[in-house]
Amino acid sequence: MENAIISILGTNNGPDQRPDAPVELITDGRFYKEGDAYVVAYQESELTGMTGTTTTFHITRDKITLSRAGDVNTQMVFEKHRKHVSLMETPFGAITVGVCATKLTDNLNDSGGVATVVYDVEIDHEKAGTNSIVVSVKGAVS
Predict the structure, then answer these.
(1) Fewer beta carbons below 10 Å: N end or C end of the chain?
(2) What span, in angstroms and rounded, lies between the C-alpha atoms of 28 and 11?
(3) Neighbouring residues of 58: CB distance < 8 A, sequence distance ≥ 6
(4) Model pTM?
(5) 72: which DSSP letter?
(6) What residues have CB less than 8 Å from 130, skipping those under 6 apart?
(7) Biggest alpha carbon distance in the chain?
(8) pLDDT tens per residue across span 81-101
């Protein structure tokens, strides 16, 4: 059931800390509460290069979990100052991704809101930069 307008704004800063152009996806999706977590789910598009993939965020006050299923499969866990390593399966092969959140904010409520994570990222154990994801939701929890 589609019940929310979701905006995902992603920024990537490479190892030299020069920012790439931000990418914003605005799409229909689902927004609901599951226990103490808000869940945001949507279909990726050509803009993100992950057509055929469903992305789901489970957002609590202390942790954001990003799961992708489809052409790209992964689960990344963001907790402030705690490194998590996961495997990302893509059509081009698998890579190891390490993430460590330096900033985590959750201003979601039953009407929507914004959650933000800023994190250091490693690809196959090499520092790849500092990224951010801003998840904005407009819609009521069903």
Answers:
(1) N
(2) 21
(3) 34, 37, 38, 39, 64, 65, 67
(4) 0.89
(5) S
(6) 13, 17, 102, 118, 119, 120, 121
(7) 43
(8) 999 999 998 888 899 999 999
* Tokens coding 95: 């890579």
State both tokens at 126.
Answer: 């090499």
Q: How far is 83 from 134, CA to CA, in rounded Å?
A: 20
Please report where in the chains the tokens 């499969």 appear, as a residue.
Answer: 73
Mean pLDDT of the 61-77 span: 94
Tokens of 128: 């790849």
The amino acid at 128? A
DSSP 83-125: EEEEEEEETTEEEEEEEEEEEEEEEEETTEEEEEEEEEEEETT
Query: Please, where are the H alpha helices in 19-133?
Result: none
Decide if pLDDT at 51 tops 90: no
CA distance readout (Å), 77 to 16, 21, 47, 60: 24, 24, 23, 11
Determine the Cα–Cα distance for residues 40 and 3; give it in Å rounded to an integer.
10
Rounded Cα distance between 12 and 18, Å, is 8
Query: Which two structure tokens, joined as six digits, stand for 105?
Result: 């904010």
pLDDT at 102 over 50: yes
* 107 contacts 114 by C-beta, under 8 angstroms: yes
